[in-house]
Amino acid sequence: MKKVIVLILALGMLFNIDAFAQGNTANNAAAQEEVSENDSNTAAEAPATEEGGEEAPAVKKEAPKKGEGIKVIRDKFIEGGAEFMALPLLCLIFGLAIVIERLITLFSVGTNSNKFVQKVEDALTSGGIESAKDVCRNTRGPIASIFYQGLDRADEGIDMVEKSVISYGGVQMGQLERGLVWISLFIALAPMLGFLGTVIGMIDAFDAIENAGDISPAIVAKGIKVALLTTVAGLIVAIILQIFYNLLVSKIDAIVNNMEDSSIKLVDMLIKNNVVNTKG
Q1: Does a structural domain hold residue 18?
Q2: What is the mean pLDDT of residues 246-260?
Q3: Which of 172, 134, 159, 131 is nearest to 262 (CA)?
Q4: In a domain, 33, yes or no
């Protein structure tokens, strides 16, 4: 269910890109008309002010309007070219989809290990192995799964319990790290796609110089601007995903350390309660 929700969110973000760009074009046209009208009004009022011999009042700077930052991002996205900017954006969308799914999973498996270990020990003391296994079945998370595997091999000796805990701990760690390789891929891929747009933009700039036979700044400005915008987009995507990647790795390390500590407590608990044969 979590994967379905994340996929719907990612697709929704992707389909909104087109509407995002179209809205920006309309807003730009309206803004240009408004600027033209303001310039005309200013030019008409200026002579009257000079004739009266009075100083023109100071122009007040308008406070940034709400949503202006989003408008700037939209403008830069359009200026960079959809064919180049869309690739880093796709890396961001799919990368964030995986990040959201992993965050939901990792924070949902969190268990108060000390409280859980105490519940297992109480059940083991009062009801034996089967009672402790019931506690593990009714508890979510990798620690409960590891405990169940260890308790299930308790009749085979302490050596088998330790091997079972270590083996299943590796399985649980692999499940916790699932999806991180794709985030790493998007972190590496986004800047490379940005640099690809940079190279293509510079090629377009030199083509413009060749066709015009001149090195005027106005001729090469568009190609260089596209090159810089695609580079910035790729770097921003990589930075955002890198922050979330480190957050996920930190959370996984904490869970793994908790698993190892709890596994040691499980072995000590079984020996303490004479549940297993210490000679194997």
Answers
A1: no
A2: 91
A3: 172
A4: no
